Amino acid sequence: MAIEIERKFLVAGEAWREAAYQQKHFAQGYFNDSGRASVRVRIEDEAANLNIKAAVIGSARAEYEYEIPLPDAREMLASLCLTEPVEKTRYWVEHDGHTWEIDVFEGANAPLIVAEIELEAADETFTRPDWLGQEITDDKRYYNHALAFAPYRDWPAEPTA
């Protein structure tokens, strides 16, 4: 079984942009709204895949991914998914021996920016970049599946002090 171990954070500021060395556009849609797993189709620039992830909140969960033909993915995204696609541009940033993935969301989820780090073990240590904000690993609202069904633009405003 494939296990994904990752932690998620909000991004504070724009300092990460100067260190970004690659970017790719993503559009993904979901075939289900509840249950034990999320099932999605994802287009990454000119490649496509089906992905199944355990519906578990936290830093480790089962994940399976299978490449599919791009025309099939476009058709699925346009006609079979339950919501509008979640769209984002992903940037890759190296920091102190780890690769960070920075997702800049578009459309209904703009201006949300989330950073993820994949780890070898749940207790692996890493250095926090200066641009890293609040950890959101255990907040299911920030998972892409949740953002498809409850976009960031529809969230109630946070109370101010």
Automatic annotation (TrEMBL):
InterPro entries: CYTH-like_dom_sf (IPR033469), CYTH_domain (IPR023577), NeuTTM/CthTTM-like (IPR012042). Gene3D superfamilies: Hypothetical Protein Pfu-838710-001. Pfam families: CYTH (PF01928). Residues 2-149 form the CYTH domain. The active site is at residue 30. It comes from the Bacteria. SUPFAM superfamilies: CYTH-like phosphatases. Signal peptide: none annotated. This is CYTH domain-containing protein. It comes from Salinisphaera japonica YTM-1.
